[in-house]
User: Fold this.
Amino acid sequence: MIRTILFSMALALSSATAAVDTSEVKNLKQHGNNLSGGQPTELALEQFANEGGKTIINIRTAKEFDGFDEQLKAESLGLNYISFATSGSELTLEHVIAFDKLINAQKQPFMLHCGSGNRVGALMALREAWIKGADKEAALAVGKEWGLTKLEKVVTILIDDGPNADI
Assistant:
């Protein structure tokens, strides 16, 4: 309860940040005006839209979620909806380049999500290392800020050995 209140207060201090109840998105994290985490509920999408959110970027694969039609719900709320399906095996240089272009082109604030936030964090860490030139520690720190957990070992190998690493 206190965490939700503190998070809501922090969000309210950011002029363009979309306020979303932390109980409506697993591992919800704030990055300036943008949010990341796991699968948002329908209520989370409504809250995001009501607070000025612009874009939902879903990196889950089509087979992962059938709780509700997220695209239909998002678009009915006036949100841009983008599906950028990413499995753990798609952590390639080509995929990260496409992801970087997608992120750079988005209307903000955006909400970027997968099932738990882990793949979001993996993509962000690899983007930091391969696209922005960050060292491993800095890239992993960014990844963790965005939700990197279980894929940390894979991401570390990919950063150490490069995009063509045999994992």
About this structure: Residues 1-18 have pLDDT under 50 and may be disordered. The longest helix spans residues 118-131. The first strand starts at residue 29 and ends at 31.
